[in-house]
Amino acid sequence: MALKLDQSEFEITRNDEKCIHCEVCVRQCSNDSHQFDADESAVSSKSENCVGCHRCESLCPTGALKISKKEPEFKENYNWSAAHLKNIYKQSDSGGVILTGMGSDKPHTVYWDHLLFNAAQVTNPSIDPLREPMEIKTFIGRKPDKIEMEKKNGDFVLKTKIAPQLELSTPILFSAMSYGSISLNACKSLAVAASSFGTFYNTGEGGLHRDLYQYAGNTIVQVASGRFGVDREYLAKAAAVEIKIGQGAKPGIGGHLPGEKVTDDISSTRMIPEGTDAISPAPHHDIYSIEDLAQLIFALKEATDYAKPVGVKVSAVHNIAPIASGIVRAGADYIAIDGFRGGTGAAPQVIRDNVGIPIELALTAVDQRLREEGIRHRASIIVAGSVRSSSDVIKAIALGADAVYIATAALVSLGCHLCQKCYTGRCNWGIATQDPYLTKRLNPEIGLKRLTGLLRAWSLEIKEMLGGAGINAIESLRGNREHLRGVNLSDRELKILGIKHAGESW
Amino acid sequence: MKRIHINEQYCIGCRLCEIYCQVKHSKSKKIIKAFKEEASDMMSRVLVEEIGSNSFAIQCRHCIDAPCADACISGAMTRNDNTGVVNCDEEKCVGCWSCIMVCPYGVIKRDVKARRAASKCDLCIDEEVPVCVANCPNEALKFCEDKNE
Amino acid sequence: MSENVINPKEIKSGYLIIGNSTAGLAAAASIRKIDGQGSITILTNESHSNYSKPLITYYLAGMLGLDKVFFKDSSFYRKNNIRLVCNANVYDVDPAKHEVTADTGKNEPSVFSYYKLLIANGGRPAIPSIKVTELSGKMSELSELMTASKDIKSVKKPGIKKINGVFTLTTLDDAISVKKYIADNKISSASILGGGLIGLKAAEAFLELGIKINIIEFSPRILSASFDESASDIITGKIQDSGSNVLTNSTIENIFVDDSLNISGYQLRSGKKVPCTLLVIAVGVSPATSMLGRGKDILKIDSGITVNEYMQTSEPDIYAAGDIVNSFDKLSLKSKNIAIWPLAVKQGSIAGTNMAGGRQKYGGGFFMNSVEILGVPVISIGLSSAQDNEAENIKTYKNYNSQKNIYRKIVVKDNKVVGAILAGSIERAGIYAGLISNEVDITDIKDNIAKEDFGIIQLPAGYRKHLVVGDGIEV
Predict the structure, then answer these.
(1) CA distance A453 to chain B (A)
(2) What is the mean pLDDT of residues C181-185?
(3) Would residue A215 count as lying in a domain?
């Protein structure tokens, strides 16, 4: 007995007064939602396959298309929501794990939206960022325990040797997105934008493609559990090396790129045979204890002559504070924490939506613990996991981060509409696909403009907010929780975050 | 002199260039009206070639030594040395198709709909930027100075 | 002393051009680009200022008026400081003296001195040997009765007899005469002897006027030099469907006239007699070199005037261009008379440049033709009538769509395109001309070469890259 149930989530509405049957939508939809009937010389649409990526709507020259949400038609049930019903139908049909893409969309508290930032009033003046210099330059790396100066030739010079640092023109970096999960054109856009703006991007576990070697000075290479693409040249070219233990969207499990997507180009970049599945195992099979991690960190430092920062990326889980402490003591120059709402190209839906903790809480916990232990200076903290705006960045820094990693925001800048179908490889915006017909749609020249536009806009907004709070250097905001107040948070949450409630003052 | 440069890498085969070219050269110049009323009369002067995932849009190159201007028996096809535009005066054209015969890019079309004349790109001389370039969603067409000139 | 003698000051820089059609004018324009001072004189034996020879059949068909047959603006001569001498019938060229003699209608001959001379007076229609029989039984040769076959001196003789209703169609005056004749005699059907280029163009015009035609062609098919059987069949079919006739393997042996020399009919080789009141003779055009007089024995001539790659004749100060020359044929690699408009333009332009001191080479050309009969356009380029020939490594690729009546054949030799014929759909035909001209190796794409959607995208990436970056092409 075949159960045919309309699972479509979106409705395509075509305005016949405006439609000129030009077939642009037919050509642009990789899910075959639009067809051209030659007999009638007309275009028609099927809503069943629509994923709500809005590609057709964006390109329609007459604005004849509207994509709207289709309300599920089940009897209203607060407990048994439509999502649960649909999942069970899908699982019963396929017997497989339900996959999804991008970050969790579940209605858990977004702590960023419960934090409010300060402004300078009366007691100290605000600063006009258009008139006064505003320093948002950020250094990622281990800071020295103490500074010693010495006199040389009548001048005081620095005696202490400083560990290798990454210099960022703004406290924002592009987070790890592998070539394989996203297209080469998307990687190029990120690489060139990072290079031109003076920040960094991360290769993810996809290896470093030949075409991107020229941007190596702005590349953080990842050593993940599958060790894809890791060879001497990879480490030699990079600006920094990052050991990936986990990622926010799927804590505890590894990555999976299906064999169909391992093209000959991806095969040579990842250094695996063409057509084989690229599976990153859950743990690194040579890291079973914190000592093993320390060993790998130092092995990488040896291999790179101690000239580059070596960091570790982990997902935000319940005991993130002691984990972070262990990582810092193991010798990492920075620690990247990826929160529960982090994005991904493909992850089991249950894990994405139910495992991990929000980054805001993880960040605070880690920053506090490291300060308590007196080792906060030994590693920079970079946070990720749904940083959506410049205000999120400011709040993250106020909570203690050195910098933020953005990924979803970067992809949205490139055109992503968060339809969450990345794992199908049919991304109509040319981002999460390897299909050459689709990847052409992402012109790196345009990508560069949009990404640098985004970074520039956020940097200016950060300066505005800093200036408004009477601060002219981002360093003054770092970990300065006094500049934050919470709203609609419980006492417990306020305590964990280490902030007062709005209305409370000193 | 500015010319249209084609970047085959970024053409997505959407054919919006063909649509806007038709509208620009239509009577009504309004996209919906033109397609509803003049569809059978319109001809795009830019043409999109496509094979597999490879595509590009090509139109008249406005050659310096234009073979179409040489081949024209009525003096309708001429190159304006000031603007650099090779233009077909459709009033003078008799539809002998000698230009179609010699154009190595194959970008001249035989128009026997509204009138009998050779039809080709006129570089949208009254626009700041040709409409195909302005409406390409992926910057596969660019209007810029030719490096060689 | 004739006022046409160029004064001594001008002798060193005087450019003289015989022929006022596209080769001559292209040369004049090229000369002016380099030499703004030297005098340019153009001699033409016609009374009209300038006109496009190919347009005369469009004028005949009523598609344009007399005011539109000019392809250069009326201000061309003034803007370029060119002296145009009309009604000048040249009959002698003296290379040693650098003089050209012409009959300009005066009592004495006009002598023109030159520094550099361009001979660009094109071709002359051939008059075949056909008997003309009067009602009385008296017989003459057609050539005796047609002005086209005569030189200017004989035409001016009094008492010359002329046949009525039989025309050649190579000049504007011819077209004007035919048009007037059609109107005066309310002609509803006409015959054309010769199914070649001019014959078909005449056919195009008559059909446009609604006149039924009989085309009489000597070969087994019309335009045999450039159409293959399939293309000929398509056109022949169209003509016959419209009620007109195409007779192949045929020719006229006898023309019948009444006592006033008005044509009344003719007899084919088969013996069939056909009534006829309008006959166009279009069996061919040959280089009009008889006007060279003395020059004919001095210059190297092989039917057409022989020129080198700089369009120079065997006399260093005499150049030639257009329908009157034998020029380099890129396909046969020989010197040939290819009498088509685009080559005349190119040759004239190069000759002019070189006459004014430049050093531009002519790379050669090849035959091509475009014609449209009853709404069916046909373009033939290069060796378009060739067939498969293993010995010479020639292979043809055909594509015939019977539903749409579209035919396409591409001729490939040694993996390079050497010929193409497109009938019914001529879109993008020029791509093949480009492939022939650039000698592109099409080994990898020959399977698609005759397909309807064949385009630049299938060409080798290197050639394509050169084309699509917006470069002007070099010819």
Answers:
(1) 17
(2) 94
(3) yes
